[in-house]
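Backbone shapes recur. Consider a single case.
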Amino acid sequence: MTLQENLNETAYNYQESFNNFDDVTKALSIRLIKLLHEALSDLADSKEALKLLAMSDTECFTQINLLLSQSRAQVSQRELDQLKRQLDSKERFYSDLKAAGGLYKASEVSKILGVSRQTVKNQRDASRLLAIQQGGDFVYPAFQFKDGCKVEHFEEVLVQMKEVSSISQISFFIDELEITDGVYQKPISLLREGISKQQLERLLNIAHLMNSHTAK
């Protein structure tokens, strides 16, 4: 049986197994299977499939995304390389975010802070809590919390960046910056472990400048 025949049979078998799902979940599952089938249809042989199998889940999904883009648009190698860099950058971002503690749902933040979910939303809207949108919900980086409350001085820094996207705000906290002359440190590490008055003033200034640059 050829690779294409294997793919066709596998896609059919999976669709049969979705019959017990509700209509929305079934439709989404079938759509994902069709996208996967489309992406893998251009593989030369099973050796290429084995390469995907040897990858981590994240690497595999990144490669499948590239295959799908190439199949649909017949993009140039330059465009494909650019897309790969974008996907790799996104992968690194979420990997770094996971290493920094991951993400909490609003309900979890509500329990941590001992406040209502409406208060969580209000603080998010006022740039007093950092959140990013995933699907239809907001999730909150865990690194901003410590011992049942917000990290000391975190809110002071965050509010300086109201015009900055949430993704850039997160990167600001988890990337290394030159806060002390010649010394690069992650702002969130300094805030969590104890930051000097001079370092805090420097960090607030960097955040303010970043916000001013974005607002222009």
Q: What stands out?
A: The CA atoms of residues 19 and 26 lie 7 Å apart. The beta strands are 103-105, 132-134, 137-141, 145-146, 149-150, 177-180, 183-185. The mean pLDDT is 79. The longest strand covers residues 137-141.
